Amino acid sequence: MTDHRPWRGVLVATALPLRDDLSVDLDRYAEHCSWLVANGCDGVVPNGSLGEYQVLTPEERARVVETAVAAVGGERVMPGVAAYGSAEARRWAEQAAEAGCRAVMLLPPNAYRADQRSVVAHYAEVARTGLPVVAYNNPVDTKVDLVPELLARLHGEGYVRAVKEFSGDVRRAYRIAELVPGLDLLAGADDVLLELAVAGAKGWIAGYPNALPRSCVELYRAATTHDLTTALPLYRQLHPLLRWDSRVEFVQAIKLSMDLVGRRGGPCRPPRVPLDPEQEAAVRAATEKAVAAGLA
């Protein structure tokens, strides 16, 4: 990866392999990061929601970043640096910089429904580290919506360079492009990848490549080059799995798919609990169908 915008391309929001005793398996995580890059992914995003960062100790969280950098190089690692406090988020960005990362991903304040002044101050604080910041808009979970007008302000102030868009509202792609053409739009939800790619997304912070990297990368490349003859049927095949990325149980679902294709996903830490039998059967059937179709 030579682009000075390391958030472009397919960056996998990595699931974190846990042992049966719920300890972090860093050796397996290092191998997983290397495997993703070897299978065509452009980089990894550790310590996102899919990586269960909220239930890691500070030492574990730091070692996850260091492990990813050692495995694939800092230019391919863009950690999530979300925290309840702006000073803590800034410290995680500083840790990422010390580890050799070239960019970080940051949620807005999410301990409460922050107003726009608080959001701007939060991003300003983390931007002080000097690393490029990718905003992460997830209004479903955070209750704070980085609407296009607010993104334009954050970009105009020099606080963010791109946005991971997880609102699910694909219409925003066009409004963002009108208001702030210099801001890179990244698909943030797997199940709207095609729509956002056609609308001009420059990257995909993706979940399901954890289990199916080659077919997901093929989908992204076809979609962003507007090769719909390739992209559309592949998207239809993958969509029964991709839509799990937008569900509450996305971590459990993706980890189960990883286990089924021979990758170690393993259990999740509480308060996440295993999928219920109906959910597990649905993920299992969709994964097995994808494997049978040669998509694994």
Automatic annotation (TrEMBL):
<dbReference type="Pfam" id="PF00701">
    <property type="entry name" value="DHDPS"/>
</dbReference>
<keyword id="KW-0456">Lyase</keyword>
<comment type="similarity">
    <text>Belongs to the DapA family.</text>
</comment>
<dbReference type="InterPro" id="IPR002220">
    <property type="entry name" value="DapA-like"/>
</dbReference>
<dbReference type="InterPro" id="IPR013785">
    <property type="entry name" value="Aldolase_TIM"/>
</dbReference>
<protein>
    <submittedName>
        <fullName>Dihydrodipicolinate synthase family protein</fullName>
        <ecNumber>4.1.3.3</ecNumber>
        <ecNumber>4.2.1.41</ecNumber>
        <ecNumber>4.3.3.7</ecNumber>
    </submittedName>
</protein>
<dbReference type="GO" id="GO:0008747">
    <property type="term" value="F:N-acetylneuraminate lyase activity"/>
</dbReference>
<dbReference type="GO" id="GO:0047448">
    <property type="term" value="F:5-dehydro-4-deoxyglucarate dehydratase activity"/>
</dbReference>
<dbReference type="GO" id="GO:0008840">
    <property type="term" value="F:4-hydroxy-tetrahydrodipicolinate synthase activity"/>
</dbReference>
